[in-house]
Automatic annotation (TrEMBL):
Species the sequence originates in: Cucurbita maxima
Entry protein name: Probable acyl-activating enzyme 5, peroxisomal
AMP-binding enzyme C-terminal domain boundaries: 463-540
Keyword Nucleus attached: no
InterPro entries: AMP-bd_C, AMP-bd_C_sf, AMP-binding_CS, AMP-dep_synth/lig_dom, ANL_N_sf
Gene name, Swiss-Prot/TrEMBL: LOC111489657
Ranges where the AMP-dependent synthetase/ligase domain occurs: 20-412
Chief location: cytoplasm
Keywords assigned: ATP-binding, Ligase, Nucleotide-binding
């Protein structure tokens, strides 16, 4: 069989862009996008993306060049996930809640060739471009006009004009769509290893890096996610997860693959989510644990008429939050992924036998991250001292490592960081600390930088946070290390309380509550009450900010734990 080799008939490059082409054939007259009073079909979305890709090529965008977009979850944001790669370019979605300095750094680092700007972010991009060095050419801008943006508190009537005074709007989004060729032959990748997207890490650390993914990786993680989560044909997906965050965990392409309906929203709160679920019979939505917490604590929450699948990832969700979410009728799935994996690559695959367990035990099991998805070749936990797999006992701690087809190509212009994360032994080191349970399910215990070492004992901030979330007065909680004169470090808890409390607990009462549920060395020695904890735009609590706050308090005085 040595004479049988790859040939053009069996080695066409894998790409998720073909999902849209197929959707237009199979689901052509079905709704693809719903946004306020606008509805498109899959035939229309396919045509619009071809026209936009055609216009991109006509203004000089070339294969491999970077095209950036700053937008909330609008139809334009969705279409750009197909149109930019259809032009052979690389899509760079930027977190619109970053400050102008960080956005300026990103735009310069990726050497973007064009920026699509939602009108509510015009002032932000104007400020970011003003920070470019005088000798550096500023990329042209395309304005995404949106009547709904006028209701956004961050927009103003002068925002668009302020940008046009400083940089050139070469066109508007809709004009580019209308001018393009609907019969455009989109530019297919030469190799499935060609880059398709460039994402910057989310900001839980202070130095975001540019993560490059290829067509092959996004293709596999998209299908992987659909299979694992059980997304069926013509599901209705509500966009509560920002598309700028790891490309919405690959679901812009995934919903096209199944011919589903994308319900887009610019911004949301609990009342909006519940209203849209009932209006459009939503079947699926995603969100960080903070979204679950928001839904369960909202006065607008109400039991669902039918189950809605909700996929959560990010910080490990406390079992108490999972229990409250499912009591409303949500079917919660829990997963794990990073910007570097392109989507979720570990999921808590549910076993039917677990349904017979008590609710508290079900929530505890669901809080675990789980097992590798089908396309992820290996997921393991390695002992940092020996480099070997830890014991499957649920207590032996090590670093979570991954190997699989959806891993990034690497960090843009950062070979040192790439080599550090992706080793010669074939592992991607996540920086997350976890354990492996006897049944082969993985559970995150902390970020490596978040492990607190108190009196020589390693303690998990996640475990302390899970206890804090069981307190009926606590809305949000995060635990970091505070320097301690005697113990080296002790847990410092930052807590926000629920609204409408008749009596607010004291620091001592929160500490005493934890004493009844944790070993003494894990009990917070300090509790800081805040109106709201600092977060990234995707709901991840910014622990590096809290660590600096705890550090600025100075060492805690000597006392016995």
């Amino acid at each position: 069989m040595e004479d049988l080799k790859p040939n053009p008939a069996n080695s066409s490059p894998l790409t998720p862009i073909g999902f849209l082409e197929r959707a237009a054939v199979v689901y052509g007259d079905c709704p693809s996008i719903i946004y306020n009073s606008t509805t498109y079909t899959w035939t229309e979305t396919h045509r619009r993306c071809l026209q936009l890709a055609s216009s991109l090529v006509s203004i000089g965008i070339q294969r491999g060049q970077v095209v950036s977009v700053v937008s909330p979850n609008t139809p334009a944001m969705y279409e750009l996930h197909f149109a930019v790669p259809m032009a052979g370019a690389v899509l760079n979605t930027i977190n619109l809640r970053l400050d102008s300095r960080t956005i300026s750094v990103i735009l310069r680092h990726c050497e973007t060739n064009l920026i699509f700007v939602d009108q509510a972010s015009c002032g932000l991009i104007s400020d970011a471009l003003a920070l470019f060095p005088p000798e550096m050419k500023r990329p042209p801008l395309i304005l995404i006009a949106d009547n709904a943006a006028a209701e956004d508190s961050s927009s103003s009537s002068s925002s668009a004009s302020s940008v046009s005074n400083r940089a050139d709007f070469v066109d508007s989004y809709e004009e580019m769509v209308q001018k393009g060729d609907p019969l455009f032959q989109w530019i297919r990748p030469v190799s499935e290893w060609d880059p398709i997207v460039l994402n910057y890490t989310s900001g839980t650390t202070s130095s975001p890096k540019g993560v490059v993914h290829c067509h092959r990786g996004i293709f596999t993680v998209t299908l992987d996610s659909l299979i694992e989560w059980g997304v069926s044909k013509q599901s209705v997906y509500l966009w509560t997860l920002p598309m700028f965050h790891a490309n919405g965990w690959s679901f812009p392409w995934g919903i096209a693959a199944v011919g589903g309906t994308n319900v887009c929203i610019r911004k949301f709160d609990a009342a909006t989510i519940f209203a849209l679920i009932h209006r459009y019979h939503v079947t699926h939505l995603c969100g960080a644990p903070v979204v679950l917490n928001m839904l369960t604590n909202s006065p607008d929450n109400r039991p669902l008429d039918r189950p809605v699948k909700i996929l959560t990832a990010g910080a490990p969700p406390p079992a108490a939050v999972l229990f409250r979410t499912e009591s409303l009728g949500f079917d919660v799935s829990h997963g794990y992924g990073l910007t570097e994996t392109g989507g979720l690559v570990i999921c808590c695959s549910w076993k039917s036998g677990w349904n017979r367990l008590p609710a508290a035990e079900r929530a505890r099991l669901k809080a675990r991250q789980g097992v590798r998805t089908l396309a992820m070749a290996v997921a393991d936990v390695l002992c940092p001292e020996t480099g070997k797999s830890v014991k499957r006992d649920g207590t032996s701690i090590g670093e979570i490592v991954l190997r699989g087809s959806s891993m990034m190509l690497g960090y843009l212009k950062d070979p040192e960081a790439t080599a550090k994360a992706m080793t010669a032994e074939g592992w991607f080191f996540t920086g997350d600390v976890g354990v492996m349970h006897p049944d082969g399910y993985l559970e995150i215990k902390d970020r490596s930088k978040d492990v607190i070492i108190s009196g020589g004992e390693n303690l998990s901030s996640v475990e302390v946070e899970s206890v804090l979330y069981t307190n009926p007065a606590v809305n949000e909680a995060a635990v970091v290390a505070r320097p301690d004169e005697f113990w080296g470090e002790t847990p410092c808890a930052f807590v926000s309380l629920k609204e409408g409390l008749t009596r607010r607990p004291t620091e001592g009462e929160i500490i005493e509550y934890c004493r009844g549920k944790l070993p003494r060395f894990m009990v917070p020695k300090t509790v800081v009450f805040m109106a709201e904890l600092p977060k990234t735009s995707t709901g991840k609590i910014q622990k590096f900010v809290l660590r600096e706050m705890a550090k600025s308090m100075g060492p805690a005085g000597r006392s016995r734990l």
